[in-house]
């Protein structure tokens, strides 16, 4: 594929991504839309691979921007917060933000023992769905649970409608 074609495809794919709802669009939808706009078949393996590369590059860039913004906000919050103030805080939207003893953000409590947290492990952001137990006045994690990388979480969220549909289908059989 020549450089001019790559540039045209890249610009079109980026234009589509920038104007799309990232919670709903898929790579297939981007490729199909770009094919229609450009009037060329992007399902050929080499073009398909190139579109995937552009999409992944865009997503990585967006994630890096979000992480940088979160880091900047985290640094500002850390400067304002003393060590003994790591429990509930109010966010800009009025919601309460809760942190555990390790400084990990508790997103929600699913029940008395289970919760969803955002953690930083060896420089990677993880979404953890885990069971906890109490010991010596501290809430500690068990091995029962799962931690997903940001990429795995994005894949899970992309497939959430299909999961929800399957659950409803199974429940209707019961």
Can you offer a commentary on this structure?
The protein is an alpha+beta fold and 174 residues long. The chain has two domains: 3-77, no CATH class; 83-158, Transcriptional Co-activator pc4, Chain A (Roll). 50% of the residues lie in helices and 25% in strands. The protein has five helices and six strands. It has helices spanning 3-18, 27-38, 45-80, 150-158, 160-173; strands at residues 89-90, 96-99, 105-109, 114-121, 124-135, 138-149. It has a six-stranded antiparallel sheet. A hairpin with a 5-residue loop joins strand 1 (89-90) and strand 2 (96-99). Helix 1 crosses helix 2 (27-38) and helix 1 crosses helix 3 (45-80). The longest helix is centred in the middle third of the chain and has 36 residues, at 45-80. Residues 81-87 have low confidence and may be disordered.
What characteristics describe this protein?
6 strands; 50% helix; 2 domains; alpha+beta; Transcriptional Co-activator pc4, Chain A; elongated
Helices and strands in order, then pairings?
Layout: H1 3-18, H2 27-38, H3 45-80, E1 89-90, E2 96-99, E3 105-109, E4 114-121, E5 124-135, E6 138-149, H4 150-158, H5 160-173
Antiparallel strand pairs: 1-2, 2-3, 3-4, 4-5, 5-6
Helix pairs in contact: 1-2, 1-3
Task: Give a quick summary of the entry.
The chain has helices spanning 3-18, 27-38, 45-80, 150-158, 160-173, and strands spanning 89-90, 96-99, 105-109, 114-121, 124-135, 138-149. The protein is of the alpha+beta class.
């Amino acid at each position: 594929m020549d450089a001019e074609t790559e540039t045209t495809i890249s610009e079109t794919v980026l234009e589509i991504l920038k104007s799309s709802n990232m919670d709903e669009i898929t790579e297939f939808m981007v490729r199909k839309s770009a094919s229609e706009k450009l009037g060329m078949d992007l399902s050929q393996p080499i073009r398909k691979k190139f579109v995937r590369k552009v999409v992944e590059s865009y997503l990585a860039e967006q994630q890096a921007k979000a992480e940088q913004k979160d880091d900047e906000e985290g640094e500002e919050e850390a400067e304002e917060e003393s060590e003994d103030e790591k429990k509930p805080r109010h966010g800009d939207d009025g919601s309460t933000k809760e942190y555990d003893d390790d400084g990990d953000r508790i997103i929600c409590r699913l029940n008395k023992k289970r919760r969803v947290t955002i953690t930083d492990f060896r420089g990677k952001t993880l979404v953890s769905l885990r069971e906890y137990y109490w010991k010596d006045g501290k809430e500690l994690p068990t091995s029962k649970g799962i931690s997903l990388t940001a990429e795995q979480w994005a894949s899970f969220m992309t497939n959430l409608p299909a999961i929800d549909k399957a659950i409803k289908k199974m429940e209707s059989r019961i």
